[in-house]
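Whiteboard transcription, Tuesday session. T.W. wrote the structure tokens on the left side:
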């Protein structure tokens, strides 16, 4: 993992299984997203994230803390 400074933000590829607890905390940090109530499916933590050539994960870190993430799914050509 790259060295991070306390107040700086850093984006890097992540293994979502390593950060599953932090991702779950992000999911449950609010009861609504985009003005809609969250569903039970979104609030349940995934036990294993799909990892293959079409799924890529990036994390936004503030210091050592994961504060946001992106799950990118490649579709089509």
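and on the right, the sequence the group agreed on:
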């Amino acid at each position: 993992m790259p060295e991070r400074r306390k107040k700086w933000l850093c984006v890097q590829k992540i293994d979502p299984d390593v950060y599953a607890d932090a991702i779950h905390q992000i999911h449950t940090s609010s009861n609504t997203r985009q003005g809609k109530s969250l569903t039970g499916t979104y609030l349940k933590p995934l036990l294993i994230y799909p990892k293959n050539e079409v799924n890529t994960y990036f994390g936004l870190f503030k210091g050592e803390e994961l504060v946001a993430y992106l799950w990118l799914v490649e579709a089509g050509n």
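Someone added at the bottom: The two ends are 31 Å apart (CA to CA).
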